[in-house]
Amino acid sequence: MCKLSNIAILLPVYKNDKANYLSFSVESILKQTYHNIIIFIGIDGPIGNELYRCLQKYENHSQIRIIYFPENRGLAVVLNDLLALCKEANVEYIARMDADDISLPNRLANQVNYLLLHPEVDVVGGRIEEINEQSERNGKSITYPLTHQECFKFFRYRDPLAHPAVMFRKSFFDKAKGYRNEYRKNQDTMLWFDGFMNGCIFANLDETVLFFRVTDDFYKNRRNGFKRAKKMLKDRFMINKALHYDWSAYLFSFLMFIMTLTPPFLKKFLYRIR
What distance in Å separates the CA atoms of residue 178 and residue 157, rounded to the nearest whole number? Predict the structure, then answer.
């Protein structure tokens, strides 16, 4: 019997995360059908007592390492620090997870099997289904393109992968290095851009791998504010130019710029009909 490849799961946590959602998230990883894993939980700055008590349950777990960072520095910085730990541990595959989502039991097994069967692929995602505050499915699923060519075309308009649902081969970060520390938001979009620019190969599974939690806070936090929207538009124009996308990409970027300036209730409506 061949030796199972080791997988690291990167799970950042910060003060606004909810303890019960974090527990669901961690347990969904511990209950995976693939068992050769280590979970790196990175705590981005001070947290409240409820979150701390939740984390205490896992402090002595053999498959979990909890790293407390004293200051809140942002998702990109924490993920880069956790990637450094992955390099020290010499893991072959690196999966992402958010502190309020739920991975399906076969997610890791199916993603690593795909990467084993497709050695040219550097990162693989999959379909996600939305759940609400009560962890109930709302009937909405988001499907992503399957092949690298389709992912590249899709990136003209939107991200070709769901960030919390991906698994990387370590070669991705040999090519694209890591996250851009200066990005408090939009760090996933910039990572995909760096991946395309450095020859990384993208793919998605044709199956649901993650339940993605959508609450009212989700819409309130969707990159509001003129300054942030302007920066996002500038980044998208830079991406469009570097990847030689056509005029439709610029038009869509401008429409997204307008949408980011709308109030949360309208964002929620537009998100539902997109």
Answer: 23
Q: What is the pLDDT of residues 138-195, one digit of tens each?
A: 889 999 999 999 999 999 999 999 999 999 999 999 999 899 999 888 899 999 999 9
CA distance 34 to 252: 40
Contact predicate 85/69, CB 8 Å: no
Name residue 192's amino acid. W
User: Which H or E element spans position 56?
Assistant: helix 49-56
pLDDT tens digits, residue range 235-246? Answer: 999 999 999 999
Q: What is the DSSP letter of 6?
A: P
Query: Residue 83: what are its φ and ψ, rounded to 5°?
Result: -65, -35
- The one-letter code for the residue type at 46 is P
In the DSSP assignment, the letter for residue 71 is S
Answer left, alpha or beta for residue 129, where phi above 0 means left and psi between -120 and 50 means alpha. Answer: beta
| Nearest Cα to Cα of residue 196 among 252, 140, 156 | 156
Which range of residues forms the domain containing residue 247? 216-274
Residue 1 inside a domain? The answer is: no
**Residues 194-226, buried b or exposed e (16+ Cβ, 10 A)?**
bbbeeebbbbbbeebbbbbbbeeebbeebebee
**Cβ proximity of 240 and 155 under 8 Å:** no
Q: What is the pTM for the complete model shown?
A: 0.90
Is the domain of 203 the same as that of 228? no
Q: What would the pLDDT profile of 97-122 be if each residue is shown by its tens digit?
A: 999 999 999 999 999 999 999 999 99
106 & 185 share domain: yes
